[in-house]
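Glycine cleavage system P protein
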Amino acid sequence: MAVFRNLCALISKNIIHHARPVQMRIPSRGLATAKAPSSLFASLDTFSDRHIGPDDHEVSHMLAQLGYDSMDAFVADTVPEKIRVPSTSVSNESIPALSESELLQRAKELGKENKPFKSYIGMGYHNAVVPPVILRNIMESPAWYTPYTPYQPEIAQGRLESLVNFQTMVMSLTSMDIANASLLDESTAAAEGMVMAFTGTNGKKRTFFADNGVSPQTIAVLKTRAKGFGINLVVGDALADLKDDALQADLCGVLVQYPDVNGAVKDFSGLAESVHATGALLVCATDLLALTMLKPPGEWGADIVLGNSARFGVPAGYGGPHAAFFACTDKLKRKMPGRLIGRSRDVNGKPAYRLALQTREQHIRREKATSNICTSQALLANMAAMYAVYHGPVNLQRIAQKVHGFTHIIKNTVEGFGYKAVTAQFFDTLSFDVSGVVKDAEAVHSSALAAGINLRRIDDRHVGLTLDESVGTEDIVTLINVFASAASRPPISASDLAAAQEIAIPENLRRTSKFLPHPVFNAHHSETEMLRYIYHLQSKDLGLTHAMIPLGSCTMKLNSTSSMIPLTWPEFANIHPFAPKDQVKGYEQVIKELESYLCKITGFHACSLQPNSGAAGEYAGLSVIRAYHESRGEGHRDICLIPVSAHGTNPASAVMAGLKVVPVKTHADGNLDLEDLKAKAKKHKDKLAAFMITYPSTFGVFEHGVQDACKIIHDNGGQVYLDGANLNAQIGLTNPATCGGDVCHMNLHKTFAIPHGGGGPGVGPICVAEHLAPFLPSHPIVPTGGDKAINAVAAAPYGSASILLISWAYIKMLGGSGLSEASKVALLNANYMAHRLSGHYTLRYKNGKGRVAHELLIDLAEFDKAAGLKVNDFAKRLQDYGFHPPTCSWPISTCMLIEPTESETLEEIDRFCDAMIQIRKEAEDIITGKQPKDNNVLKNAPHPISVIAAEEWNRPYSRQTAAYPMPWLLERKFWPTVSRIDDAYGDLNLIVSTITLRQADFGTDEGLQCDCPSVEESASSL
Ligand SMILES: Cc1ncc(COP(=O)(O)O)c(C=O)c1O
């Protein structure tokens, strides 16, 4: 108590004597400064006034500070003249603006054009029941959807804990040693499993066998991925066709699906043994709900287990976004793709979570990375984990038993009409042979459509169906009567239904082991408790709800509420990705419009919305380039030039597309070394496939020579891939086509306002020039792509379709002129920030006119030299000021990359600059010896409340200096919940699951290894 009294006393004193006064601000006039409406009939709820932070007065003030009297003059000095496009290219004429209310009205109209048929199509997609407490408080809550990937764990403990719950849930249900914190979708997860099996043999064994019970979209994605790696993909009956000696000798892995796409539950334990005898891996795609009743793959010998977790409370959304899960055995963990959350401790020994084994990831290992995964599906993984927390093991099993029981009733009743179920061992999916009862499968489908039902189309003779949690008694009566009507049998009623006495799972494949024994899955089953748990976790996380997140290259802008609203409407949320075309007219219109807007913005000809992250877009775009070369008899072109400053996903994606990476130098000022590029392009001219360039570059530079660079590549037979992660600097000012590119991806989760979700979802569509359009990705169920299309790159035809609505709404509400204005203000905000910070920090790059692009790179190397202060010390100290640190140590290890975006007001930008300048002063005190080098506010940052309020305080600075270094923090303080986290300790003592009941009984988690792998290896072996 005494501690708290002391603290209150400190706070009530004038504790900010050392802080410099906040800069004089110009009065903010808000909307009063917005342009007057053109007529009485014009809307007043214009979105650009809400989206763009600075108002006209603030814009004028910033321009004046930079020495300009107009925005045009400023832009002219910032964006090279030769790449400028006419202002008409992206304007309100080309993309008209709608007000917020008009947009919602339009979305309603389009929603009505989607027909909400009840889909029993299955194939990995279900009608999930989203608990309202999760829908409202996670999916629709900016506290959960606006934070970034938890690279700053001290201000992200909430979602880190939730993601550990996800990992624990997957490990427990699959009975595997370790699981990651999600992948993009089930099919790409299977492709990652295949590559793990392949690289595990060091490329010596090249055959990967996929069972024909695997979903067709997964087989399609495997085909694309196998091509890049030169894997020989064989599809057949895994239980019958694997006897061949030559095949066995070259086998690196086998993929099975359990239950399979037709519903059969097969015993793969013998297969696991024989696959292991050849030295290959057994990969299993499965279903988490089924595993509450089925013997888990980890108990019958699978090495890798994966699937889609969406039926745990995530809407179908016409295909996504959903969180794929991925689990493996302990010995494979260092090859595992994707983010892994591990438990470590902070400097005071307090347990704390953080991203583990990051040295596996592409940003460190680049072309040697295990995969190119960067953004994954954190928000959806959190929803699925919370679903398991809410239901707990008992309710999950009840749900599974009901689904299974209903499926059994359907089988028995429908067989009574003469149809023949293809398998007698199933969980929730059935395939019926309809021959002998009706003319063909179409007879059953028409009967289903007449009842507002979609069944799975298998072939002329077979019809499939899959049940889920949403199915009630009335639904199964209707479903059964579809079959009755097609067979001209009298309809049944609910009173005719009789539960089966047996379960249709053979004894040896039934689950006997317990699952989810951990306290977290057994404590929050009332809505009150659940709500409190959700709020408890979210209170630990800093999102855009608190302050700006100025992460360079990440474009953390406003995710407007109006653009988020439509995607949880049932008309958009409850649509199966393989629903017939005439039921998805609303989605089709959204997709068509979004594709055309993205083409206008990039200057390209055609678009594919299928890739579900930026890195997936890179892989898709490079695969398109490869296919183009092949179509011209130049398939041997396999060299990809990539600047050393490129994002780690670039080289990792190039390798996945079968390309060999040759690095290109950059100058110290950030510009590409054109001489080196020329030399390398010439040297490899016979094999040059592509050049990847980020524009503006990752140094925050609008390179003048971009068109020259692209010409060098074209002259030597290559194609140019433009990484569009920085497109926010370009809209309406320049575009990737004008810069000289042939293909680019966009991160809709950056430039086009899809929230980052605490680590995903994302969408990474690609736009291409006309000559590449025929090669855009296809899909095995829903036709997409060009006439020479590459195979699918994602499970669903339009990837994470439901969130396309966000970017569609964003573009429509801003309109062309608003989009262009947003880019200009993004440039202005960054330049104003550069102006305020230079003089205090070393700005690493500016152009000849003194301008940066939409982000700025400051170099902190001098502080390391003078006082041993690292980038991380500044970053952690920023947390004490309530800010999310900028991107750290990338693209240069001693730098911070800062991107304010257009959504931040002058006041917020000044607040951030004030914080940075105050930290600079704190650093000065350390350099001059006023404060010790090893025990100071920067080295000890961040300061959580537990440290500030501790009985003991023996630091050479006061508590108020630690916690309230600026006046506004008294009003607006965000507390990190732990002190600085020890990364090395976490990797050396890898714990990736939540504590078990046994550990809870001990009251400690120290020293107890439970259902988590024991790791004695040292980090140096990574
Ligand atoms: C320049 C650049 N390229 C590519 C990517 C990859 O995008 P994603 O994380 O969506 O895979 C990023 C992500 O931060 C990036 O900054």
